[in-house]
Amino acid sequence: MKTFTPKPADLTHDWYVVDATDVVLGRLASQVATLLRGKNKPTYAPHADSGNHVIIINADKIALTGNKMGKELYMHSGRPGGLRRDSYAELLAKNPERIIRSAVKGMLPKNRLAKVQLDRLRIFRGAEHPHVAQKPQAFEIAQVSQQAK
User: Fold this and answer.
1) SS3 28
2) Mean local confidence (pLDDT), 5-32
């Protein structure tokens, strides 16, 4: 059996839109990471960039389970004294995009390809997005949060 290597002509980058309303953060991040890597395609190869563009709307309506509202998200700028920590509760109110981007980044591989794939992720707080011209397909995440019901 030969190893399949997709040719550059085989690599297509489709557009998907995901509604994050009442979806648990980890479930959303794992599904989005799969789409960004292109693992939903039959032409997937881990070394080739066959990933998709993903648009996440309603980022401020994600569901956080457990005691994550009291948990903190850390980020360092790389400069002395550049450690920044924000609680999930205040980030959900001010910058929910950072919560989702951090969760998706943690589920991508730690290599050069991950940055290219993460750049294809677009997160919007509301229900509107400016990428209507690309005709994104709707991607449904079936299981929503039990607390939202």
Assistant:
1) helix
2) 93
